[in-house]
């Protein structure tokens, strides 16, 4: 081989192979994105009709919808054009608040205990193993459990409180795991540095480790929350009402949630319901998008590069 | 093990170590160490990897307590008090005996907060600003950061971060500072600054330093303890103290052959 | 103490030793000139101080090497100081020799012309040693060179001495004194060599290259 061949080697062949491989990867990405875009387009184009445009009902009637605010604040109705997502929206908000209030302390507390205090023995390993398993349990099971424990045993009835607590249990394993990861990401040198200054273990953990891990824990919680608001099955099981024409007033009120409402509307035969359901889905997507964006902002602004 | 006689007027010891062995479960990391360390001097621990220097130094401020499998036999006395007595509070021990680590580990907070953390947990919150200035001045960092105390500590250079770690350690007014390879993550310029800093700190503190760098030990320390590893029956290696003497003697005329070999680079 | 301080102390010690040695040389040559045995005795006793000064420099240099491992300029300087101190120690021994000679010739008849030559050579060695030390202290390469050249003068004095001796030979009474003066001159010549060696060190410090003068 002369020098020129030594330097050139198999560059051309390699470049072709790389190009082929990259093309396949691009194809995968395209498929995923195009599918998603199609879905969104479908939802938006039909939901838009319910929310905004003049709507032609047949050739004779022309109906004017006033504004999207109607949709957000109206109660459910037999008329697809009047049916609104108000109570469901309120129900979802109530659920979110209850889930946040219950998950954050429980999730953070459990994660802190497991990561910082639990002795490394068989019992701890057992707990950790089961935690990972729980994250994979079908959400329906949680619904059944919610029914038995919160609705019946605790006597909360088919209330938004029971719903919120059930969802809490659902996302708790994920939140605990995410929080633990955030705590693990704090280097041990920080703990040691704090202890070496004469702090107690509690001071080191609660004044240095946890504050550094909070962005990660919050991100984990927001992501868990975005899963929770999309859950339908457990809520149905423990009795979220499907036809609701009032706003929940106390934690013990009956309630419904956006996914359930949409599920309901989709079941009606009239074609106009499609637009209404799409409008509901748009709202849900909007909420999910905002929460994920929030998680991203928190992560980028506050999480530390160790 | 040989201890050369030291000049007669240096009679004050900060640590007296008698027959100390430290093991993790059944593995003996370092055994049968006996030595006395002098106040207001710099004592260096040198030796190859795995000879137990870091393990030993961590037993002086009870950081080994954090490792459940670690156990300490023998007697380590600090100014006459056995550090491992039942009624000795490890938290207090760590306040009196500070530690600076190999990789600078400032808290991810402002420079000011790095120093106030130690002060707050030790209830030394009077005259905070004065204490902060004093600590940073003693650590030769004040001039570089005085206009910027709210800057995040992680934005400082490696050498500055390490000096900050030293500052927060001395802010809580210990009388001894343990340093576990404090310069190994730093460039030569930053290293020299830390070495100069040690020379000035030793007037007020007793300093114990673990170092891999023999030249550093010879430049900086007053006394030197050389450790090595010896193979045990089950094939593992246990650390032992080979020679402990004043630095000048150790580097001009060591008494043990092993010391001579290690210092002149003929080891292994 | 920092490295710079340690090396500065080493150089200061050399200068102190240099002063001791020059004083010794001056007293020794004057004692020889005036046949002053008391002065000669003082010179001989003071050699202990010079030896102590040498031992201190030797010890400090040794520890400096072991603990600081100096390089480049620091290495050249500290090692030159050590070598210079060795030459100074020999010059100290020269003074002792002159002192002993003073005692020995005290009662012996010696030709005045030869006595003068010896004293002249002694003064020359003092001058060379003093300039050599100054050139080292001030890192003055020109002074070092010109001082080294004066060694020729010592050589010509030596030759002059030999001529005088051949003129005087014949008078057996003078032989003892003569013998001592001749060996004294040999020793003084070596003293001049030591001064030249110090000049070489001074030049080395300035240029970084070692040259024989």
Task: Give an overview in words.
The complex is a heterotrimer of chains A (306), B (268) and C (213). Chain A is mainly α. Chain A folds into 2 domains: 14-73, no CATH class; 86-302, MetI-like fold (Orthogonal Bundle). Chain A has helices spanning 3-8, 11-51, 68-73, 86-117, 122-134, 139-153, 160-185, 188-196, 201-228, 233-237, 258-266, 272-302, and strands at 55-57, 61-63. Residues 1-10 of chain B have low confidence and may be disordered. Chain B has a single domain, classed as P-loop containing nucleotide triphosphate hydrolases (Rossmann fold). In chain B, α3 (111-121) packs parallel to α6. In chain B, strands 1, 2, 3, 4, 5, 6, 7, 8, 9, 10 and 11 form an 11-stranded mixed β-sheet that branches. Helix content of chain B is 33%, strand content 28%. The two termini of chain B are 20 Å apart. Chain B is globular, with a radius of gyration of 19 Å. With 213 residues, chain C is mainly alpha-helical. Chain C has one domain: Methane Monooxygenase Hydroxylase, Chain G, domain 1, CATH 1.20.58. The interface between A and B is medium-sized, with 19 and 26 residues.
The level of helicity of chain C is: over 70%
What is the number of strand segments of chain A? 2
Low-confidence parts of chain A:
none
CATH class of the largest domain in chain A: Mainly Alpha
Task: Compute the CA-based radius of gyration of chain A.
Answer: 25 Å
Total of DSSP H or I helical runs spanning 4+ residues of chain A: 12
- N-to-C SSE series of chain C? HHHHHHH
For this structure, what is the CATH homologous superfamily of the largest domain in chain A?
MetI-like
CATH superfamily of chain C: Phosphate transport system protein phou homolog 2, domain 2
Structural class of chain C: mainly alpha
Molecular shape of chain A: flat
CATH topology title of the largest domain in chain A: MetI-like fold
Q: Give, in spatial order, the strands making up the sheet with the most strands of chain A.
A: 1-2
